[in-house]
Every structure is written in structure tokens, then in C-alpha cells.
Amino acid sequence: MKSFKSKQLALLLISALSLTPTIASASPAASPDPSGEMAEALSQNWLPQSLTSAGASSSPITAAEFAEAVKTAAKAAGSSVTLAVPQEKGGLTREKAASLLDSLIQVPYAKPVEYRDVAPDSPDRKAIADVYTAELMQGKSPQAFGYGSMLTHRETAAIVYRLYRYLQPFKLTEATIAEMQKAMETGRLTSEELVGQYLERIAKYDHQGPKLNSILTLNARALETARQLDAERAATGERSPLHGIPVIVKDNYDTYDMPTTSGNVGLKGVIPPDDAAQVKKLRDAGAIVIGKANLHEFAFGYTTVSSMGGQTLNPYDLTRVPGGSSGGTAAAVAANLAAVGMGTDTGGSIRIPSSFNSLVGIRPTVGLSSRDGIAPLALTQDTGGPLARTVADAALILNATAGYDPNDIATAKSVGFVPKDYTDYLDRDGLKGARIGIVREVFGTDEKVNAVASRAIDEMKAAGAVLVDNVKIPNFDVINKYGSLSAWEFKFQFNDYLKSLGDASPYKSLDELIASGRYDPSIEKALIDRNKRTSLDAQEYKDIVLYRTKYVQEAVLKMMADHQLDALIFPTSSKTAVKIGEDQVAGDAFKLSSFTGWPTVTVPAGFTPDGLPVGIDFFGRAFSEPELIKLAYSYEQHTHHRQAPGSTP
To answer: 3-class DSSP state for residue 499?
Structure first.
């Protein structure tokens, strides 16, 4: 970064301006822009009147006027500027304006320009590429820069407004992946700086201050990895939209360079032989695993307490739980301690903490993304997916992590159902004409939650959706009587997972772990009960797997077909986050996705009067993630309910 970063700009303009060529013709007047960027620019009270007056809009600007406008923009952005203003008269050409702007910025990853009127050997070619990449100057058309033509006052107004935004310090909190990438592409930020800023926030808010206690382990090589990715970007460009982006990963995902404990102190220091499949895909895409997040031990509950990490706090109310079991990931992402996060979901473990932390959460179709290398709870229901602050960010994570993996046979079902790019479905008008069923029977009795859900329904109607009220799931009362698969599958699948760790694991079986006594006392009964299972050949277990899945899938498909529905909606949790130490309940809504194995997208729907976040779920058929993303994004863009927590400013 150049000197503007320390708020001291030295503009050496005289020598450059003395090279102004003979004027060929004045550039045409810019068309009035009643909306968008030009309207924003003209609304700035710091903008010189000479740039905003109608009479001067199409006239060429002089070098001195341009220099003064640049000085004013820098001052408005918070920079202290010293200018050496030239005395030469005459208009300023667009290419010389580009060269002057280029002296203020550093663009390490300039995009090549293809303007037909810029010669390959032009001395201004680099400057034009730099200001184009930095989005300070654009061509007169996609084919022509306007080389040799004069810069007008109105064009300068737009340029200095862009410079004003460019010079402002990068704002980390609530930044999207796209905004981070743009800042890195334009030289305002490096991945190393981005990681450093997140590490500073982790030290300030997770280890000190409110002490959220959301993160178990930091990646000691995160900054080194960021430097390597910065160098790679400069040499060959970015790998994907996730290049250099810091991600927090729930500590039941295997990582070859950090311990994976499932929140259990008995597994402290255990480093798996390789990455979980989804972690590897993220790293291959250029993402940086900045650390591992706390979780409810072995993913057993909704409060996120573990013998390894203790109790994670909810950043919206430090006396309350963050939800679970992916509560550490949720608290970290909500508090802006990482760009995005990864969680797992067996019975609401992505969705509920997303709801309690004003986040977007995607529980994918079982089989969309690999579970290989994720410590299991019940593989019949287990899946892993993103928690993010926006639908767009969650979609980018899904792009990187979805797809077939030969080490997880369930992903064979995804072949032919993974689109080229989930972000293609980010349609602001996606709710228009969509038919959505309201599943009242899973709403619960909490008036505060239901009031938020009612407002969400009205907001969807206002956005053009057709809401079909009080749709019924056939035989839902019968379906609800079937038991939990985690009570059956955990012992056998966790024993297989321990074997996959090889010599790194201190235990060969769940039986040995229980005998050690090294676990949080709150999960002792759950561990012992699960360990009593002797076989998966029991008829009760087979009935759950065969009949529960069949009944609920058929019931949902029939109901959606009968009403011609694109999706179903309901509150993510029937209750808000409870006080620490209390038992958290969530109702029956999570069962629709968990029992069918089909996808859900959770989106912030607002807050209760006492400031607690509430989420709404968009649920659909198998592999309907594109449709759900479209609906969720449209709702998000029409409402913007997401708010950052006050405890971590």
C-alpha cells in the first residue's frame, strides 16, 4: 500500500502534467444519471461545485482543477494531502488523468486491458490497466478507453467519488467475500492483512473482552499461508472467489495441520492424517483455515459446551447460549472473527446456531457434499455445510464443497444435480411468483418467535411470493414418534472414525473413551446409553431407517405436489436462545430436513423485542439448493435483517 494508507499523500503532478498532448477534441458530455453511482457522487457535499454544475458538466477539466478535486476527495476520505498544483492551462486527457491516479495507488494484480485505442506499446497502458482494475476509470465503451480525448467535469465527479471510496480504510466488520476480493484485487488489502485483522479481532473479542470462547485452536501457519497466496495471486491470479479468504471450521472436521477433538478433552492434541474432504476442497480453492471452532461435545446438543473448550457465549446476549452443536462456528462468524464458517448438521446443528446468531446457514441434501473426515454422529442424517453472514457468501462455499467424493458413497447421488455455479441463482426477484407453503404445525407457542415469523410472511408477500397457509404434512404425528438415529449409529460409526485416526488416537473405541472419564459430565448419560447398543441389526433401528425416511419423504412430496409448492417455510427454532445453564429446545421443525435428508436454507428474519435473533427456514425437495438459494437471497435482499452483535464492534 502507498502513503495514503498512513494518510499522507504527496502528489507530484508538475512533471507529468507538462506532458499533456495537443487537444484533439473534447470528450462528449456524460449522459445524466438519475440513479446509481453518479447520483451518489453528486450527492456528496464535499464535491467541488465546478464538477456538479450543469453548465460545466461537459466541458473539459484542467489539470489544476483535476488536482484540486483529487485533493478534496482525499481529504473527505480522511487523508492529509500535500499538492504541488501546476500552472499549465488546457484540458487534461483521459490517459494523463489515469497516470496521475496511478501515482496514488498500488494495484498488484492489474487486469489486462483490451481497448482498441490503447497501443500495446503505449506508455500509459499500465496506468490505464491499474485504474481500470481499481475501478477508478472505465473506458468510454467496452472497446475504447477514449485515448486522447479530454476528461470532462462530470466524468471527474464520478472518478473522484470512486477515489474517495478507494482511499477509505477497508472495513472488515460485515464485509462480504466479494468485497474482500475486490479490496485485494485493487490493492487496498492483502490476504496477509486480512488474516491479521481477523487474528486481532479474535484476540480482542474471543480471548479477551466479552470472551466469546468460540475458537479452540488457531492455525499457526495462517499468516504464512496468506503470504503464499498473495504471491500466487500476483504471479498467476486467484484460484477462485475464495482465494485468500479466512474460514473457521468446526472442530469435528479433520485438519492435517491442527488437532481435531470433537470438543473432547480426551482427544486433545490428536492430529488426523489428512484433511476432511470439504476442508481439502476449501484449501484447494485458496481458502485459509484460520482456526477450529468449539462445538457441543461430540455434536450431542444445542448449547455448545465441551470439556475441551467450555461454554461458548452468544455474542448477541452474553448470558445466553449460541445454539449448537455448531455454536462456536456461528458465534465466530456472527462476531466477524472469520469471513465464513463450516458446521455440521444432524438434527439442526447448522440451522439453530444460524438462527440464534443472525446468520445464513445451509444444511445441504445428504449426498451433496462429502462427510469423509467429519467425526460422525449419525451418518444417515449427517451433513456438513456453511454458516455465513450473507446468502451469497454461503453459495460461494457451496460451490467449493459440493460434488462427488469416492470416499463417501452418498455423494454419488449428487451427480447431475450440482450446478456450475450456485451464485447464478442469486436473484433479487426470486420470490416473485414463487409458491411457498407455511407449515404452522411446527411453529410452536413462543409468541415472540411467531411474531417475527408473521412479519417474515408479510415481507415475502410484499416481495411477490404466493403464500399457501397452514399446509399439513400427512401423518406427521406418526413420523414424530420415531426415535433418534444418533442414539443407534454413533457408537459404531465413531469407532470406525477412531480407527481412521490410526496411531494418533489415544482410544480404540468409545468404550475406552468412556472408561477414561475424560469428557464433560453433562454428556455422560448420552455416551453410556449409546455405548449400550450392541448391533445395528435390531428391528427398531431398521424400522427407523426404512419407514421413517419413506413416510416423511412421501408425505412432504405429496403435500408439496398437492399445493404446487416450490418450498416450505417455518421458524428455524420454536424457541430463542436460552440462558446459559438452561436446557435448549428447538421444536419439531428441524425434523423435516433431518428425517428426509433434504436441504434447508436458514436466513435472518429479524429480532425479538429483547434483541434475540430469529431465523426462518426455506425447505425443499432433494437437491433443490438452487431454488432455495434463490428464494432465500430474494428475502434477504428485500429485508436486510442481518445485524452485527453489539458486543464485538
So the answer is: helix
Closest to 404 in 3D by CA, of 281, 322, 282, 314:
281
Distance CA 61, CA 148 (A): 14
User: In the chain, how many H helices and how many E strands?
Assistant: 23, 15
Distance of CA 476 to the CA centre of its chain: 34
pLDDT digits (tens, 9 = 90+) for 104-115: 888 888 888 899
d(CA 115, CA 98): 14
Contacts of 147 (CB under 8 A, 6+ apart): 93, 94, 95, 115, 117, 118, 122, 124
| Claim: this prediction has a pTM higher than 0.85 | yes
Which of 309, 308, 301 shows the shortest CA–CA distance to 326? 301
In sequence order, which residues have a C-beta less than 8 Å from that of residue 6 and are 6 or more positions away? none
What cell was used for 161? 467519488
Query: 3-state DSSP helix/strand/coil percent for the chain, to nearest 5?
Result: 40, 15, 45
Q: Retrieve residue 357's grid coordinates.
A: 446468531
Are 26 and 91 in contact, with CB atoms under 8 Å apart? Answer: yes
The strand pairing partners of 402, in sequence order, are 369
CB 159 within 8 A of CB 134: no
pLDDT digits (tens, 9 = 90+) for 511-558: 999 999 999 999 999 999 999 999 999 999 999 999 999 999 999 999
Please tell me the distance from the alpha carbon of residue 228 to that of residue 421, in angstroms, as a whole number.
Answer: 27
Grid-cell match 475464495, residue found:
242
Q: What is the 3-state secondary structure (H, E, C) of 255-268?
A: CCCCCCCCCCHHHC
Active site members? 250, 325, 349
